[in-house]
Amino acid sequence: MMHFDPDEKMLAEIVFNNLYCFAASKENKKVTFREMLYSKELLGELESLKINKTEDLIHTDLMQAPIYMNFNSKLFINFYTRAVSMKIS
User: Fold this and answer.
1) DSSP 4
2) In a domain, 87, yes or no
3) 19-72: pLDDT as tens digits
4) Does the pLDDT value for residue 5 go beyond 80?
5) Mean pLDDT throughout 69-76?
6) pTM attached to this predicted model
7) d(Cα 84, Cα 89) in Å, to the nearest integer?
8) How far is CA 37 from the centre of its chain?
9) CA-based torsion, 42, 31, 70, 19: positive or negative
């Protein structure tokens, strides 16, 4: 059984919660083709992740996928900024 540290778990929750909110959106909310394509590509990136356990959270595949996909979430940006600050300290 694989154990994830709390930061990895929080990062996964941020990304997957965003995808869940997109998938569970109300029927009357209009979704653009671009939003749908982005979500599909993000899911593809997440599916292709390999389990690569490193101590450096900043360079994990789970961190790189949202950065590569230009994941536009305030929670993610705050999380990433905190991770970089902790690494610098």
Assistant:
1) -
2) yes
3) 998 888 777 788 889 999 999 999 988 888 766 555 555 557 788 888 889 998
4) no
5) 90
6) 0.73
7) 9
8) 16
9) negative
Residue 63 lies in a domain: yes
Tokens describing residue 71: 């994941």
What is the domain extent for residue 69?
55-89
Domain count, the chain: 1
Tokens 């009357």 belong to residue: 28
**Alpha-carbon distance 16 to 42, whole Å?**
10
Indicate the residue type of 84. Answer: V
46: nearest Cα among 77, 30, 69 = 69
Residue 43 lies in a domain: no
CB 40 within 8 A of CB 69: no
- Give the phi and the psi of residue 30 in degrees, each rounded to 5: -80, 135
Q: Is residue 20 part of a domain?
A: no
So what's the pLDDT on residue 28?
77
